[in-house]
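Slide 14.
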Amino acid sequence: MYRALNSVKSPHSLYALKIMLSLLLCWQLSYSTSAYSQQKQPIVALYIPLADHYAALVAYEKYREQMKFADFQIKQMQSWDLLRAYFYSEQADMAFVMSPLAMDMFLERANFRWIGLMHRDGNALAINDAVARKVRLATKRQQRKPTAELALALKELSHHQIRPLEIAVPHIKSTHSVVLYKFLSQYNVSVGFDVHKNVDIRLVGIAPPKAPLHIKAQSNRGIAAAFQQSLPWADVVETGGFGHVAWYSKDVLQWPKGHVECITLAKDASILHKKDAVLEVKHFIQQAGADIELAKTEGGAALEQIVQIIQKHIPAHNRAAVVASLSPQLNAINYHDLELDKAGLELVMKYAVRAGILSQPIDIEEFALEEGEYE
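Slide 15: predicted structure.
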């Protein structure tokens, strides 16, 4: 090559040769990058800005570069209906979905499978001052429990209004609706979703980020208000000084290790053609869940790292609310044991069918996919 360069007499020829060498180098780099990218298959996962999906954010920030098979990508959806529609498209491989909604989706279109959990427990009932004045709330949040006093206070307040008291849930087909139904029905407080039915309490779907505004708007009008949402939104209203956490779902839908809430779904086509990548993402989400649990216990720098990751993707989750949600004393949400829990899902399904949230039960054995069945 040195001789070839020296043998070139014309400056124009030398310039042309340099251009050719540059193009050759670019081509080699492009080929190398292309070959590398072909080894990693894109896995697009859909999530909602909730504590439910924190493990996906941590996996993305901490582990995506370590993944050998998956080019892990996350897309934030602002509502559950949007997530549902987007997942039905060809542009997503995985989604993190509330279990009743996921089962309803499976009834409609069984082209995906349930492969794991995103977390356990994790939602709470928040009330405004108009409700709080009717009950005795413990000063410490970890001591607040679901009581008959609160259920009957909600019923009484509802009967003093022109229309039934509305409790906002993220979606009618949510675990939150299941939890509320279980809580209220045991005290003979009727729950409905249809505006034309005469019920004590009506559940209305409101996107999680808008739930605090629901509390504020009703409070400004002097109307009793409440919402049942995933963390940290209940903690947002309490740390913001315009609402109170009444209780946490773990004390209503009690289950060993915590009740099933949001679950991980993967398209059949993605499982078939991107098996290693799908499994890799699943495993790193579980590792991220373990990281969050360790950070909850250790606090300090470990917890700050988790908070920074969350706020990078979800700025609306203020630090105080995130830290409160991940409090080991509360243990209101946990990321342990994220493998399939069929009996736990069956419990949710039983109440969902009873409440009319699901039109019929599903075949959980058909819905669930164990790792040994990926072949």
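Speaker note: The radius of gyration is 25 Å.
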